[in-house]
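Help!! Second protein's tokens look totally different from the first
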Amino acid sequence: SGLLRNTIILSKHETILLRQELELIEKYLSLEKIRYEERLQYEFNIPKSLYDFPVPPLIIQTLIENGIKHGISKLKNGGKITLSASLNKSTLHLLIMNSGQYEPIEQGEGIGIPNSKTRLNLMYGEKGSLRISQQSDRDVQVELRIPKELKS
């Protein structure tokens, strides 16, 4: 219930702090860990100095959820999600790695990815971006760039 309550509250804001998004992701992953047990591993590599960076609510959580749904859940032995962050000038650079295969849908990529790309474009213009790529035969990488300043 705490996860649902926080999701509703945070989704009403244009941006939230990265720390708030991470807290939401931790709650989500703890529930998924019950479901997948040892088949789901995760790791965060995020400097505390970035915790106050503003991000669109639920954008990272959606990508984590996609990694589990379309990647890890399809693997007999499960897999791992790694979330890393760095700052390049005033742009947050996030990398989400998940075990699995990237299989774009023929007529688009479903709902979550296009919605996230549209949100980034509306909020940040060309300075915000989301890219997905197959990094090895076992790993998918999502690269997310979020500038500190909103589009004027």
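Here's the second one for comparison:
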Amino acid sequence: MVNFSKHIKTTLQLFILMVVVFFFTQCSSENTNFVSIAAISPAPSPQPQPQPQSVSKKVSYIALGDSYTIGQSVCATCRFPEQLKKKLESTIPNLLLDLKIIAQTGWTTSNLIQAIKEQQPTSDYKLVTLLIGVNNQYQNKEFSIYESEFPQLTQRAITLAKGDKNNVIVVSIPDYAFTPFGQQSRTPTKISTEIDRYNTFAKSYCETNGITFINITDITRQGLTDTNLIATDGLHPSEKAYSLFVDRIAPKASEIVKK
């Protein structure tokens, strides 16, 4: 009887042991399969990130003047407003400059005032340049006309520049005495003296009223020693001369269009 009970006890212990071993074996197999499946599952593909779009900044520029602005005797892209546009667009990322020119060979201050009235440009320009007066001198107009009309033109330029005088650049009058044409005059020295008078008035007015004035007259006074500064007509600035004008104008113009 005792031996039979002991046999049953031993059999029960073996059965329990087998159940436990079977249980752990199954668990181990399931975990292995899970790890294996997880290990071979491909990682999710990274989602492409949206790239920042390049935004172009479009600003408007109007150039007011006479033959020195329209670029008499040089190509359309050689005149200083076009060279200035190209320089600014090449040095300021994403800048697009919309250029308008109101200028014509032979125009005096009176002609420019009338042309602006007739064309009625909008008053939302970011940049305005003004170069005027040589024909007042060449046509022997009374200096008092320039004294009266130059301030009118600068104020009109400010109006076109959204009413902001800081967006206006006045450029000095070139000296054509230092050209073959000017040298044929009986009094080239008188030409220079009178050009100085015009420029002195313009500079003084601009400084008094907080308007930027940029001198380029000295560049044109190198025309007799550097003939490459003179266009083929023997009178007007060449593409090279205009590029030197732009070198002086561009830093201020760049500051304006970046605002």
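Reply: Different proteins will give different token patterns, so don't panic. The chain is about 55% helix and 10% strand.
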